[in-house]
């Protein structure tokens, strides 16, 4: 399995094939590349979730519909996830974080940075790990290596998980739009999400998952560049919302669950990534959802 990691400013935009007999070409935003190994949409595999909040639940729902087994976990114990497991159906079960990591082919981590010290490092060794989190000092406390911009939050996660392969994804979109904007392969209104990581094979694996869930991907480089999809950047949340009401939004969480969202194609995502200007991470504030 191989892929080309683009240099800064180059973005490999890929749609992984659903039909191995006649795979569609990989779409490119900036340059043509040799096609890499494709995966079938009827993927059989297990996705583990450490963190089963709004983002984790949204991704898990799409994964079950796509034919994956999912193993959910949180910090409160498997028994607290019984209702969610019932809602998702027979493709889902609950476990501890260590069990979810051990049993999974790929793991989605969607937890605050305050939970990093409790991650099952050994169980995650050798796994591709999708990091769906963001750094919010108000919630996570101030972390010197992030406040100084020495590291991005995903690079910090990679440091904590030295034997795992971290890929940044799902961190720049409202939870309800993960399902609302998902589309079949080659749909004219299919959207893209940005991904970043240091391991080319892991990014290919993450892109294959996103493709099976209904999303194109824009590979914008390494974890050191993952700030380009962080809060307050051009690609963060707003493009996927569409036009805001003229009277404004007084209850964002309620409003965002009722909108269809606005498709954001891969070429647009690549341009938004290029337009990003790095702001001090220490100044990042939690979004006002009231």
TrEMBL record:
Organism in which the protein naturally occurs: Glycomyces luteolus
InterPro entries from the UniProt entry: NAD(P)-bd_dom_sf, P5C_Rdtase_cat_N, STEAP_metalloreductase
Keywords, ordered alphabetically: Oxidoreductase
Region (Disordered): 1-41
Basic and acidic residues: compositionally biased ranges: 28-40
Classification via Gene3D superfamilies: NAD(P)-binding Rossmann-like Domain (3.40.50.720)
Protein's recorded name: NAD(P)-binding domain-containing protein
Domain of life of the native organism: Bacteria
GO molecular function, one term: oxidoreductase activity
Residues of the Pyrroline-5-carboxylate reductase catalytic N-terminal domain: 46-134
């Amino acid at each position: 399995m191989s892929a080309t990691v683009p240099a800064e400013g180059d973005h490999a935009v890929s749609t992984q094939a659903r039909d191995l007999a006649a795979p569609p070409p990989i779409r490119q935003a900036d340059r043509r590349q040799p096609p890499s190994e494709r995966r079938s949409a009827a993927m059989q595999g297990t996705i583990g979730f450490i963190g089963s909040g709004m983002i984790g639940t949204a991704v898990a729902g799409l994964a079950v519909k796509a034919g994956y087994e999912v193993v959910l976990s949180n910090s409160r114990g498997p028994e607290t996830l019984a209702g969610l497991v019932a809602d998702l159906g027979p493709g889902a079960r609950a476990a501890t974080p260590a069990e979810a990591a051990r049993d999974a082919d790929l793991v989605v981590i969607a937890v605050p940075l305050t939970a990093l010290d409790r991650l099952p490092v050994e169980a995650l060794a050798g796994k591709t790990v999708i990091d769906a989190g963001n750094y919010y000092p108000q919630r996570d406390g101030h972390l010197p290596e992030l406040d100084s911009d020495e590291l991005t939050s995903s690079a910090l996660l990679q440091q904590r998980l030295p034997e795992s392969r971290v890929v940044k994804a799902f961190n720049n979109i409202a939870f309800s739009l993960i399902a609302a904007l998902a589309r079949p392969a080659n749909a004219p209104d299919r959207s893209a999400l940005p991904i970043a990581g240091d391991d080319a094979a892991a990014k290919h694996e993450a892109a294959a998952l996103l493709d099976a869930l209904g999303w194109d991907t824009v590979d914008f480089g390494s974890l050191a560049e993952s700030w380009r999809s962080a809060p307050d950047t051009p690609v963060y949340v707003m493009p996927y919302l569409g036009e805001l009401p003229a009277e404004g939004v007084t209850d964002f969480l309620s409003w965002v669950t009722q909108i269809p969202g606005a498709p954001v194609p891969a070429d647009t995502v690549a341009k938004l990534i290029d337009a990003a200007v790095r702001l001090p991470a220490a100044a990042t504030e939690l979004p006002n959802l009231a």
